[in-house]
Hints:
Distance between the termini: 77 Å
Largest sheet: 6 strands, mixed
Number of strands: 25
Strand content: 15-25%
Helix content: 25-40%
Mean pLDDT: 75
Structural class: alpha+beta
Amino acid sequence: MVEKSKVVAEHVTDLTNTFEILRKHKLRLNASKCSFGVSSGKFLGYMVTHRGIEVNPDQIKAISSLQPAQNPKEVQRLIGMTAALNIFISWSADRCRLFFLLLHKWKGFEWTEECALAFQQLKEYLSQPPIMSSPEVDEVLFSYLAIATYAISFVLIRVDNGVQWPVYYVSKSLHEAEVHYLPLDKAILAVVHAIRKLPHYFQAHTVVVLTQYPLKVVLWSADYTGRIAKWGTILGAFDIKYMPHTSVKGQVLADLVADFAEGPEEIETSPRGMDEKSVGLIFTQHALPWKVYVDGAANQRGSGVRLVLTSPKQVIIEKSLRLGFSATNNEVEYEALLMGMAMVRKLGGKTVEIFSDSKLIVGQVRGELEARDTRMQEYLGQVRRLQVNFEFFEVTHVPRSENAHADFLATLATFSTKNLPRMIMVKDLNTPTPMTGNSPQVNQIRSVLSWMDPIKLFLEKDILPEDKSEAKKIRRKAPRFWLSKDKKLYKRSYSGPYLLCVHPEASEALIEELHEGICGSHTGGRSLSHRAITQGYWWPGMQKEAQEYVRKCDQCQRYSTPAYPQENGQAEAVNKVIVDGLKKMLDDAKGRWVEELPHVLWTYRTTPWRSTGETPFSMTYGTEAVIPLETGFPTLRTSSFTSDGNDELLKKNLDLIDERRENAMVQLAYYQQKLKQGYDANVRLRPLTPGDLVLRKVLGTTKNPNWGKLGPNWEGSYCITSVAGIGAHYVEDLDEKTVLHSCNVSNLKRYYY
């Protein structure tokens, strides 16, 4: 038990309160094991000093005194001692990997030279262990990642007066499947593993992950599913920022980038100082990259883009483009950058280093400068989207003197009017690179702030509300949403495609169109909200809003179907649904039912059935129909429609339609079973005995044809004379005239007088 006070003057008072609680519950302490007024010393197995948290010298001495292992038990002892010091050992999983391999039962025990070398390196590392630091309240923490073939490592650091101090090391050995992950997947896994190990740090602090991998673009992209989508949901609940790392001034942790047996790292370290070990620029060594020198020129004669590409095999490709549209210098520089990325991707390159003499463009891409202009934000977003296609991507600023070759090609493009020799390609670029659309959308351009604005602001610019509680809510909700290229907000659906988020000012118009429009059928509130989701729309409280709208609908109130306990149930005949829809559509003009019938049938075919969860249209054609509403409220599937791709997708849906129908039949059987259980649970026994007066249900043969639908539903009264069998009785009228056939109890009910 630890008693810690924030203010020195309150420490005695806090101790008094603690002792009173102990006396109240009759708890006793061993005075010989209690310590008071501790400012430094041994605590929880570690040495706490004014410098920070240090390793217990006894633990280091115990490992240093060990001899090379002779059997698996001694290896287990070594691993156990090392595990107690994991927070002080960088790359502990990789350092101890050879020891773990010795414990495999299907392999014989053999202490090799590699094991002896790893054992000696571990002792040397622990001879100068790092000092861990404790962060302050609300302090921003930083972290580095390191990726190897069989292990990943994560280090949490804090910066104090320009000096980096380690807070915690986390390391993980990769299993068989994880070994085959891409480096980008391993980097995300390292952050997820750190959160699972150190949730209290991530909950109390903002953590900046310094990495060259485009983690933010990948985690917030809609193109990824499976484990990356799952990891994105986990990481989205915390205040984590992703920034590209550069060489860092001050002392940081050197051994995070230790030499690996496989997958070596490139290290740029700063001079050592004090007791810490330094780490500078950290990144995993990739295949030889493409080198691209880009530049742009804009003058009175026009604008030009120049590119000089050098392949890993030292093949030089030169390209110069004339821009057929007006552009500023910064826009031309971005066009050059995007064209270079597109060419490398087209040529099959996965790693690229781009050199530009524009400080503004390089600073914005590296995250060092903010893109405030709308056009610059669009260009930067396009760069981020293309960046995902590369395993390694880096942009470096070079002086204009070192970019003279590309500068010459750009100038050449602005002056060239004739074809040049083949060694230099000169082409025309008549339109700028396609960017996000600027057409107004019903869910975006609004004069009143809505629930969508904080989420969009966070997804687009990583800006949170000032209120901490609100910021925590937005951060927790954001992983369930996705912001498209044209700034539309979508919600990630559990059961289907992404759902377009609807602005509160547009929700009523959308409900009205679904309920009363050309494809509306005046369905109930629950069915109405389900239909909106099926068509690809979503907003908070949509089911409650739909129910309130249906409750106030005049046609629904006038032509609502009465509920009969025994007959109505949940299963309605098709013709009954169609007639009910016609009633609400026709109002007083009953003669127009022929014109309205196609609309009612179309609505019936495109409305999901509760029993199967599918629409009749999808059960026939394998896909959902596009209703006229989606032309005014475009969803994700209508916005990304292409005729060729759509035809191929329809064919694939038809190939899978049998499986979809089988699932619907399974759902139908389950629905009927639950319906029966619910009905049986509400059945109340109505014991009838001879001599009771009852009413008999009016059936088709006993109904007076002159009454029509306005006649009564029960006739009588009758008197029960005897029991005909289980659930059946003989009855007679009040004139003692016996009814020839027995009556089922379901067609009888007690008559009260």
